[in-house]
Amino acid sequence: MRQKMRALMLVAPLLIFVVVTFIVPILSMLFRSVENEIVPNTIPGTVVALSEWDGSTGQPPHEDVYRNLYIDLFKAEEAKQHTRLGTRLNYEQTGVSSLFRTTGRSLDDIGELWQDPLEAIDPNFEEGSFWFEMMSGTGGEGFLEQRRELMAAMSDENMSGDVGFVPSAEIIEMLPWTARAYTDFALWAAIRDGDTVAEEDPWESVYGALGMDLTNPDTVSAINSYNGAGASALQAAAANIDQLPDFGFREAFTQEDEDWGNAEVWATIKLYSPSMTPGYFLNSVDMSLTPDGVKMKPDNQQIYTTLFTRTLVMALIITGSCILLGYPVAWLLANLPMRTASILMILVLLPFWTSLLVRTSAWKVLLQQQGVINEILVWLGFVDDADRLILMNNATGTVIAMTHILLPFMILPLYSVMKTIPPSYQRAAKSLGATNWTAFWRVYFPQSVPGIGAGSILVFILAIGYYITPEIVGGTDGVFISNRIAYHISSSLNWGLAAALGSILLVVVLGLYWCYDKIVGIDNVKLGG
Amino acid sequence: MADGASNEAFVEFERVQKSYDGESLVVKDLNLTMPKGEFLTMLGPSGSGKTTCLMMLAGFETATHGDIRLGGVSINDIPPHKRGIGMVFQNYALFPHMTIAENLAFPLEVRKLGKAEQEEKVKRALDMVEMGSFGGRRPAQLSGGQQQRVALARALVFEPELVLMDEPLGALDKQLREKMQFEITHLAHQLGITTVYVTHDQTEALTMSDRVAVFDDGRIQQLAAPDKLYEEPENSFVAQFIGENNTLEGIIKEIKGNTCVVQLDGGEIIDAVPVNVTEVGERTRVSIRPERVEYNRDRLHEDAHTLKAEVLEFIYMGDIFRTRLRVAGNDEFIIKTRNAPDQVRLTPGQEIEIGWLAEDCRALDAS
After folding, report:
1. Which DSSP state fits A191?
2. Minimal CB count within 10 Å: which of A97, A365, B190, B223?
3. DSSP annotation string for A258-293
């Protein structure tokens, strides 16, 4: 036991390093392929309200959903989180991004539809201190903490701290919408902006929320028998409901953008409400999650299965050509006299000492239509000047350049295995009556197979994840899945999809490795010795 | 030579030379004739050219000059796989990816024998080396001795007339080596195969061979039957290389037919047989085997010359006693005596007189 502990202590630094810099980042990246917390975190109220909506009717959801959306979106807009949500949902339905962005800009306007008449009814509603006095009280600590947690999840920030405000339990009971909106405002003003809540004018959403509460007849009757702080102003507002807008929030939203009345948009939001989603993975295999279930994408949008197949096929072709080209070179390396072999070895290793980018760019110079190879072929008369070979910006270019770049990874393991095959085996074979070819094929070759295995695994796995070379010489026909992953990581910023594609690639490689182990046996792979 | 003179030559090396770099010769003017069925050993220190000779015979090296004949036909231009010579390699060279049976079937397969015939021959060959039940195993699963047997069986399975063995017992421990030495010679004689055996172990060479060719410096120094080689070495190198040997240096004083008188550098006079010395006054190196030295005055001729000796060390070795003496200024003079009941045990510091029969003392070249 003590021995084990000591051993563990010895490897601990490396272990920690590997875990922290390799395993944890990979796992967290892979987790992004199913993670979908942004939707339930940004619009938590809406997600809950939406769960009761049946999208199959084709009707937009109930007013309640829009009210929640307004409260959620308003604070998201304050935290500038609503555009992120728009971007996320835009992966699933185009147009959602701009819908969220434009609506975000007019949330104030919607609130003012209620703010203006309310302030006209009772000027007290203009005063921040009046609102503070009316909303404050006792017994609302639990409610405050609940809103604080939601706010923290939405804004990705630590919202802890003293708010200087405790909502009144009575008001929460009587004006539930207003209490939510005002508490959100108080949290934001006190903790994010560092202001004193009582001195600040409330958000427009607070007025909208009071409007929501006033549509409830129970609330109105409760107000009339209420005698706490701000009772007169509330009673005045309740008495003059007819001065408030005669429409609800559904209409307010649809007026801003008619897409808010579109059941499809809501169906998408509902579909992606859970905090985990198979959506990215389905996307990676050209399927999509629709309200009617999982469906194949239309033919013209299917790209990933093609890319996966192409990546595998081309990695196999590259591995094959590396074996064909590398085997004789490795054989020469292992069998030539020392002096010649070392010169050859330098030639093999030379590419290793050259930047990958330089090598690939050199291939660009060689392969292009006005490039060295075409010029020579035209000059020799093998190819007509009019139809020069297209060697680049297609699969051919990728195969040629990658075979060259990965060749050392085939030659070196092959060489190290061949070096261990004593020449006496072939001599023995010949003395037993085998011709040179039979001695090679029956005796030498089988013993070099572990080297081929090791080289193939190396080359294949490197090829399957290669990205710079296909990017430069691959054009559109010669790009790999990794180019797509890189695109989603750095350009489209759809990390979830990139993570899903990466996970699939990882699983495919592990699967192939497993097959290889079953068929060839990983014990038969030698990297040397 | 003596043994095979009546038989027809089967393997012949005629004026064979070999050079790897075109300047220095590794094999210099090699002439060798072997009759059919002979077991010949090429013995020599490393770098003496013995393995090169074997490789030329097998066809893996080509002779720079000269002719190698097998059954009267020059094989200089015949590639190794058409020579039909069985060979056992130093590290056995059993194909690791094939089973024992597959290893043995390999030479039959490339000769395109039928499956049934192959199996029959493989079985017979394995039984011959008592490895009949190991056909399904891989070489790595066998011990060194077992691999050795399989390698032997593989070299014999296609019934070659000539088998070459390149230090085949080098990797085995002493006991196993002695057992295999016996088995190999037995098998070779039983099957009547001509065998060329290369080794640097003189005991192996002496116990196994019909004749031994002692190689040094690219030449055969002596080619003779083991007993002649040991008892009648023809030059200093052979005398030194084979067995243990005492040497004393001096000048030829007198040659009388089959005997000569040698004056050692210290002035002492001894009798010897002149081997490759011809003139009086020539420098010579005299060679006496330790077991032929006598210190019991009664057993020597009356007129034999004797030398004074001082005992330096006495070693009890069980079956024999080994005594180191200082003789004529030579501190490394060894005598061996049998552990017989009446044998005298010498003590260090003791002064004795030693002598020998003139025919046991050979005056050889001084080089």
Report:
1. I
2. B190
3. GGGG-HHHHHHHHHT-SSB-SHHHHHHTTEEEETTE
Q: Are residues A211 and A317 in the same domain?
A: no
Tally of helices (H runs) and strands (E runs) in chain B: 8, 19
Q: For chain A (length 529 residues), average pLDDT per consecutive 10?
A: 89 93 91 91 92 85 92 91 91 90 91 91 89 89 92 87 88 91 92 88 92 89 87 89 88 90 90 89 88 84 90 95 96 92 90 86 90 91 87 90 92 91 91 92 92 90 90 87 92 91 91 83 63
Contacts of A429 in chain B (CB under 8 A): 95, 106
CATH number at B109 reads 3.40.50.300
The domain in which residue A170 lies consists of: 44-274
Question: Which structural domain range is residue B47 located in?
Answer: 9-230
CATH code where residue B255 lies:
2.40.50.100
Question: What is the number of domains present in chain A?
Answer: 2
Same domain? B62 vs B24: yes
Opening angle at CA A358, ends A356 and A361, nearest 5: 110
Verify that B290 and B199 share a domain, yes or no. Answer: no
Contact A433 B93 (CB under 8 A): no
CATH number at residue A333: 1.10.3720.10
- Contact with chain A for residue B145, Cβ under 8 A: no
In this complex, is the C-beta atom of B81 within 8 Å of any C-beta atom belonging to chain A? Answer: yes
Q: Beta partners for B272?
A: B260
Mark yes or no for CB contact B110/A438 under 8 Å.
yes
Gap between the Cα atoms of A34 and B90, Å rounded:
63
Question: CB under 8 Å to A315, separation ≥6 — which residues?
Answer: A460, A463, A464
Please tell me whether residues B254 and B288 are part of one structural domain: yes
Q: In what order do the strands lie in the sheet with B27-35?
A: B27-35, B9-18, B65-70, B73-74
Tokens of A226: 């209420």
